[in-house]
Amino acid sequence: MEIFTIKNIGKLFFWLSFILGSICLFGYVFTKDIQFAIAGYFLLIYGVIINLIVIFVLLIYGFSQKEYFEDCKKSILMILINLPIAILYAWIGLSII
Question: pLDDT-derived band of residue 59, with 50, 70 and 90 as boundaries?
Fold first, then answer.
């Protein structure tokens, strides 16, 4: 796998999780449609599972291909940036329901 691809994996999962979480949160805030809150809840559950699987795969790949370990680590850190954002969004969402 190329370095460019490894970094794109981190960016893809970061932005996908961030944008979908923002749509769910602000969709509920502006419309008060409970479907956005339900979607946000499921996104939180399944997003954590999917992101953990991606992190685990990147860790395995980084340990097996030593020359790509630093790039895998950067990609993992980019995905982990979403963790405090997800906690904040969940706290806001639960506070306004």
Answer: very high
Q: pLDDT-derived band of residue 49, with 50, 70 and 90 as boundaries?
A: very high
Output the average pLDDT for the chain. Answer: 93
pTM of the model: 0.88
Helices (H), 32-96: 34-64, 69-80, 82-96
Residue 57's Cβ-side half-sphere holds a number of Cα atoms within 13 Å equal to: 11
Instruction: Specify the DSSP class assigned to residue 81.
Output: T
CA distance to 6, 32, 36, 67, 82, per residue, from 26 (Å): 30, 9, 8, 41, 17
Structure tokens at 64: 């097996």
| Residue 73 amino acid letter | K
What DSSP string runs through 47-60? HHHHHHHHHHHHHH
